[in-house]
Amino acid sequence: MNIQFTPLVVLMLLSGTVSAALTIIGWRNRSIPISQPFILLMAAETVWIYGYAIEMMSTRLSTVLLLNNIEYPALLTVPVAWFFIVMCYTGREQYLTRRSVPLFFIVPALVYLMVLTNQYHYLYYSGFHAETVNGSVIWIYEHGPLFWITIAYCYAIALVALTLAGGRLFGQNKLYRNQTILLFCAAVIPALCNMAYVFRFAPFPDYDLTPIAFLIAGIILAVGILRYRLFSAVPVAYSRVFATMRDGVIVVDRQYCIIDINPAAERITGFSSHVAVGLDITDLVPLPKEVGGSAARGGGERRAEIHLPYEGYPHYFDILFTPMDDSGAGSSGYLCLFRDVTERKQAELALASANRNINLLTSITRHDLNNKLMAVRSYIELIRELATDPIQKEYLDLEERAVQAMREQIEFTREYQQLGVESPVWQDVNAVIRMALAQLDLNTIRLENNTGSFEVFADPMLEKVFYNLFDNAMRYGGDQMTTLKISSVPDGNEMVLVVGDDGAGIPAAERNRLFERGFGRNTGLGLFLSREILAITNITINETGMGRGARFEIRVPMANYRHRKAEN
User: Fold this and answer.
1) Is 278 in contact with 256 (CB distance < 8 Å)?
2) Cβ distance 193 to 211 under 8 Å?
3) Over the stretch 409-431, which tens digit does the pLDDT of each residue have?
4) Do residues 115 and 57 share a domain?
């Protein structure tokens, strides 16, 4: 064949190289579903662009027609591949099945057959003529009626794809919006250039600049892949999430009329979507008054727990009503989430039952032991009246102290039994301190309270912590103790509560064992219990006194304290 050269050939070959490189990139990421139509698109563009570049270098009609026949399957594949990409990107790839995909190539196959047999009917190309442009021979295709039908088909597919992609411009986060804009531009630019060539209003009407536009589109796609994770971070279709969630979801309007229901909710309620839609949600599930009653409707987010017969036995479900508008008033309806919490609920009930049984057994045992100890103590008193030997009286004193220690141990079990039974709550520190002090007689001891106004999140037995600290100070502070001080000091992300006195203090040798169970001159259980109470909510306690007096630091994490609002 006769060879000719034009500067556009260089751009064509460069554009084809970019398309080939993007094909390789797509192949390396072929595990991503959207990469498969992307590979098809880039491979088709590569064949089209290289074929057209060689076609521009030929001057013989037979060679040009042969190259056109090689390019045409790729040319017809491009709009279909773009459509497949947009379908995957917008979360509709479930429609691209082994049965549906071949249907999109029926028209391209028929068109290609008409192109190959054009010499027998001239319905696709009605004729050809050569023109000389800047010293180069360009063969001009004269279009027949089938060509315009094919163009309408290709443009219709492209228009549908662009419409679907354009819908992603709204309601997405910034990353996905940028991805959609790049994808939109990469599709529009080649389409506009092709329209300019087909309708011959381009600056160079004799040249098809669509392959050059593919070079620009390829650069845009490369930016999208490298900068905006195009095709690797693809937005998930909310319809798919809705349909595949294991939790039941019911969408209702502000009158609690069902708008939509997902398959999981269908299984939970036993109602199919075509039956449920239009009903009041209370016709499907018995909602508690706090979420389903007339007084509750129209409010903000609410939560409740119900049990329903499901899969042959009762299941427990946590129900969350979330308003679907920005104001939180539910004016656009509610999203009702049903989460199966049967296993958790059964474990909670089993644990509660075990606790009740243990507490009952402990109470009965404690009552019986107290009765026995009272009897022993009575016998000791009777024996004491008859005893005359000093050694016997000494043994009786030891027995009485042992009995008293046992009674104190049993009383401790009463208090320890309540540890962790109730959930932690926010408590005003000053109020807790006042309740602890009300149980003690300070006599001449002066109290200095500088804790400020704040609350801590702790076990309801927090009052017992302060009682034990104050009681220990009065027991072991000695006669020289005159002041009991309580203060609070912020320390980084913690609030430090300091309870100190100016008494005798704690010997250094004992400081490390203060919180051990049984250590101490009394029962040795007060400080041990205090540490256990605080540990429930990750609050720590340590003795840090270095000079005169004891000094206990209670460190409250940032998440466990808050400043109390001043009351009007």
Assistant:
1) no
2) no
3) 776 666 656 665 677 889 999 99
4) yes
Query: Could you tell me if 94 and 178 lie in one domain?
Result: yes
Answer whether 268's CB lies under 8 Å from 310's CB.
yes
**In angstroms, what CA-CA distances link 495 with 32, 55, 364, 428?**
51, 80, 41, 14
Question: How many Å separate Cα 285 from the centre of its chain?
Answer: 27
* Cβ–Cβ under 8 Å, residues 271 and 261: yes
Is 2 within the bounds of a domain?
Answer: no
Q: At what angle do helices 35-57 and 61-89 cross, to 10 degrees?
A: 160
pLDDT in tens, 379-413: 888 888 877 788 888 888 888 888 877 776 776 66
Gap between the Cα atoms of 165 and 288, Å rounded: 43
- Rounded to whole angstroms, how far apart are CA atoms 486 and 482? 14
The tokens describing 112, both together, are 């290609």
Nearest alpha carbon to residue 279 among 288, 267, 266: 266
In tens, the pLDDT along 471-514 reads 888 888 777 888 899 999 898 889 999 998 888 788 777 777 77
* Helices 106-116 and 145-166, axial angle in degrees (round to 10): 150
Task: Identify the three-state secondary structure at position 427.
Answer: strand
Q: How many CB atoms lie within 10 A of CB 484?
A: 24
What is the model's pLDDT at position 428?
Answer: 92
Residues 42 and 132 in one domain: yes
Distant-in-sequence, close-in-space partners of 367: CB < 8 Å, separation ≥ 6: none
Q: With a cut of 50, which residues of the chain have pLDDT below it?
A: 1, 328-330, 566-568
Report how far residue 262's alpha carbon sits from residue 250's, in angstroms, rounded to the nearest whole number.
7
Cβ neighbours around 214 below 10 Å, total: 29
- Which residues lie across from 563 on neighbouring strands? 454
Cα 489 to its chain centre, rounded Å, is 36
Is residue 388 exposed (0-12), middle (13-18) or buried (19+ Cβ within 10 Å)?
exposed
Angstrom distance (rounded) from CA 108 to CA 85:
18
Q: Is residue 115 classed exposed, middle or buried when 0-12, 13-18 and 19+ CB atoms within 10 A define those classes? A: buried
Give pTM, 2 decimals.
0.50
Domain finish residue from 417, 451, 479: 417
| Res 412: pLDDT | 62
The token duo for 85 is 């990409």
Domain containing 328: what range?
238-340
Relative orientation angle of helices 429-437 and 462-476, to the nearest 10 degrees: 50
Angle at CA of residue 462, ends 459 and 463, nearest 5°: 145
* Nearest-angstrom CA–CA distance, 84 and 78: 10
Written as six digits, the tokens of 258 are 């069902």
